[in-house]
Task: structure prediction
Amino acid sequence: MVKERILIVEDEEDILELVSFNLTRDNYDVTGVTSGEKALDVVEKKTFDLILLDLMLPGVDGLEVCRTLKSDAATNEIPIVMFTARGEEADIVSGLELGADDYITKPFSPRVLIARVRAVLRRHAVPTPADDTPLTFRELSIHPGRHMVEVKGNSVNLTLTEFRILHFLARRPGWVFSRYQIIDAVQGQDHIVTDRSVDVQVAGLRKKLGPAGALIETVRGVGYRFRE
Result:
C-alpha cells in the first residue's frame, strides 16, 4: 500500500519533530522543512497529498506560501492545513480565503492533529457533489433542483439566501468557510449579504431547521462549517 505523503512546514524544531513523529507513526510518508522558501523548493521536486503549513515563518511566511501554491495549476489541488497561534484569527481568515482547507491552533493535541489530517484527506478523496445533486444528512434533506429542504419529511420554508447558505455549506461537510467566502458564494437579489448579515441569516436558518440546525457549526472568529 502506497503511503500518503505529507509535507510539514514549521520553523520550530520541537514542533516539527513532534508532528513528524506522530504522522510517521500513523503510517504517513513525512517530509519536514523549516522555511517557506524550502517548502516551495521541495514541492517543485516531489508530490504531496497534504501540506501542514505554519503561518509564522521567517522570510516567506505561510500566507505567501499558500498564495503561491494555490495560484499554480500544478499545486493548487494539494490540501493545506494551517498551524496558527490562537490570536491569529485574521490570518486564519486570510488563509482560508486563499484556499487553505483547515487550521489547527497551537498548542494542539497529537490526536486532534491526526484526526484533522485524516478528515481533510478523506474530504479530498470524495468529489464535491454537483450543484443539482440531492443531499441527505440523517433527518435533513436538501433538494437543489426543487429548491426544497425537508427535516424529518416536513418541508422547511427558507428564503433564497438561507437556502443558498445551507446548500453551500452542506456540499462540503467539514470545510471551514469565512463569512466573506459565504458572501461570495450566496450573494442574491433577495437580500444584500454582508459579513454581519451572514450571522443573522445563519441564526434564522438554524431556528427554522430546529434540531437539524445544530449541523451548522460556528467556528469562532472565522465563520461556519457544516458538521462532518
